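Annotated sample (chain length 335).
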Amino acid sequence: MKRTLAALFLTLLLCSCGAPREPESVQFFAMDTLMTITCTEEDLDAVHHAMREIARLDALLSRTREESAVSALNRGETVEDAELAALLTRAAKLCKATGGAFDVTVAPVVSAWGFTADEYRVPTQEEITALLTHVGAGGIGSDGEVTTLAEGVSVDLGGIGKGYASDCAARVFKEENVSGALAALGGNIYAHGTKSDGSPWRVAVRDPFDGSAYVGALSLTDAFAVTSGGYERYFESGGKTYHHIIDPATGYPAESGLASVTVVCGEGLLADALSTALYVMGEAKAIEFYRTFEEPFDMILVTQDGRVVLTEGAAALWDTSVAEHSYQYETINKL
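Output written by the structure step:
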């Protein structure tokens, strides 16, 4: 049995030609991942403010910290916290909008596979079937301040937590008039403003088939980008590979024909949730969702058969010069 974790699947390309100020990078650990925020020296105070905000969210949303509000909720306690209630209400709406492809109540199934505690195993079909009876956003009850869960239901906000943290970092940067910063919260990227030379931030998308290569790069300004892929976290058992992105409909790792999904939009939480949901959906349903969903976003789908499918907005930001392997690139429109 083996498990490999990719350190970062969105990689920052920070070099610029003749930049007048050298960027500063601050690294820290939160939400079970290594995070990096890059800025100029005069904006370091704002970065430290953002770090404190992320630490606060980690204490609130962590499923593995016994003192967190989420852990209390999962123990069956009633939790009064307006911020958590708002997050879970949004999560329930996104569950409905994605047809259940994104669902924070899949938590007990994820735990059954061992991904919560890094103790990997393949659960029996009987176990999965029993756990699926407790999966569904209908098990979340909230009146805007107080949240409760139905019996047997538990939640894991790992699918939106870092995205929401990037939204909070963005708010700090705007409030403190940061000219430019790049926040890499695990694989959740927020590009604020521009680099010191006025050029957009460049973010390379990891090649899901070669951890040392890229499929292309995005030029981003005031935008969020999140990538999800089965290669990020997985284990092998009985000659088969099992990854951490669980399909809430089946209780098994999603087999959608996609190797990775990158979502680019104006909200970190939304990009985080949709990158998971679209991966579960697969190419055809993801394209249909893109064309019908009321909130704007762009996406990059890397398929298992070696194609890169981009929406028009993503294609306008895309550069293949960093790609080290040959891919077939396709662009789709909104219709």
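Annotation: Residues 1-335 form a domain with the T-fold fold (CATH 3.10.520.10).
Annotation: The chain has one domain: 1-335.
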